[in-house]
């Protein structure tokens, strides 16, 4: 009986050790970059309706300044830009997509704020941005005081919405999830003006000459950066090193020339947008 008990304890010990070893190889110990490389896909969250920064063109392909940089990330990490999987997100869902592991990186014109830094980890910025207000030429809004008693259109989860809620709570906001919905509401006259990133508004106004950016800058100048899930230090460090390399190549200026200059022309200096 003693031998039988001894053998039983021996086999139980082997099983326990095996379980402990298995636990030691849990997904938490697997390198984030190794996982991406094993899957042979880099999943990046981008906008689908924010030209010229992130949008889906008529052929169903992702384009824009953010997308241009994201393609380079995939090329340098996986050896092939085509191995990126673009996942379209909305402004209010960007953090959720990272937290639920549906994307590896967010490159959806994500402005760095103190509140967001509590939820995600931001890499080195690649773009400068401010807030602006666009409105019809025949009723151009040039001062915030003109918005009193009026409806101002914003996108949910954007810095524009946060800015007006914190600084001008008396102004009524009409919020939409998608950029397309918001700009259609402006065209339909459901609001007297629309607040958003000034870089986006400059581009949109160029395409819609019956509207102008009457207020070109609000608050402080902000920066836009890639974001990863909170605590994903390895991928964060890789992105920072990658952006440092791209800066040495002046790659961000090439991205500007290929995606933004055709829209902005000479009216905007690249140094006012590119951050490096």
Determine the number of helices (DSSP H or I, runs of at least 4 residues): 11
Principal-axes geometry comes out as: globular
Order of helices and strands: HHEEEEHEHEHEEEHEHEHEEHHH
**Mean pLDDT, nearest integer?**
90
Helix content: 40-55%
Instruction: Give me the secondary-structure category.
Output: alpha/beta
| Main pleated sheet | 5 strands, mixed
Total number of β-strand segments?
13
| Percent strand | 15-25%
Radius of gyration: 24 Å
Distance between the termini: 75 Å
**Unreliable stretches:** 9-28
Strand order of the largest sheet: 10-9-11-8-12
Please give a quick description of this structure.
The chain is 41% helix and 23% strand.
Describe the 3D structure.
The protein contains eleven helices and 13 strands. The protein is globular, with a radius of gyration of 24 Å. A hairpin with a 5-residue loop joins strand 3 (54-56) and strand 4 (62-63). The protein is α/β, with parallel strands linked by helices and 276 residues long. The strands form four sheets. A five-stranded mixed sheet has the order 10-9-11-8-12, sandwiched between helices. It has helices at residues 2-24, 32-39, 65-78, 94-99, 114-117, 159-167, 179-187, 198-207, 233-248, 251-259, 261-264, and strands at residues 42-46, 49-50, 54-56, 62-63, 84-88, 105-106, 120-122, 127-136, 151-155, 172-176, 193-197, 211-224, 227-229.
